[in-house]
Design a protein that fits this description.
The protein is α+β, with helices and mostly antiparallel strands. It has helices at 16-23, 29-32, 114-119, 122-145, and strands spanning 5-12, 38-42, 53-60, 62-74, 78-83, 88-96, 99-107. It is 29% helix and 40% strand.
């Protein structure tokens, strides 16, 4: 990752496999999204794997749909997807005792228009969105683990 990436991390009191299962299920993405833009998934989508494609209902002012592809995948510890614009969302999981350290990264080093992403202020805004996402992910995973 070049300088065109911003990350946040959080310790979650749940097993990495449970957290990974949530991330690998597109039907759960709206529930954990901290930005308020992910509205739901489109169609019947199974568990994600390397090369999987999945579509999401989005809303940023106006509703739209976006198709994503999984570009990085390591069962139980790494998943990253991106869309036509080229930027990626990456989640890395690392077991730390009885907790899991989850790092979420917005990586625009692969973007088709990286300067536009910076001018529009996405890196700055995404940090708080990622903190909210990790909080929601923790709530879902920890309540499921109980």
């Amino acid at each position: 990752m070049a300088y065109r990436a911003v990350s946040c991390e959080r310790l979650i009191s749940a097993e990495a496999s449970l957290i990974f299962d949530i991330l690998a299920d597109p039907s759960k993405h709206a529930a954990i999204d901290g930005s308020g833009t992910v509205q739901g998934h489109v169609g019947k989508q199974g568990r994600l794997a390397l090369g999987s494609t999945f579509a999401m209902k989005m809303r940023f002012g106006i509703p739209y749909r976006v198709k994503n592809r999984v570009y990085e995948f390591g069962e139980g510890h790494l998943i990253a997807w991106g869309n036509l614009a080229g930027h990626r969302w990456r989640y890395e999981l690392k077991v730390e005792g009885e907790q899991t350290l989850v790092t979420e990264t917005f990586d625009w080093s692969t973007s088709r228009l990286p300067i536009a992403i910076q001018i529009l202020g996405y890196p700055r805004r995404h940090r708080s969105n990622m903190e909210q996402t990790l909080e929601r992910l923790a709530e879902l995973a920890e309540s499921t683990a109980e």
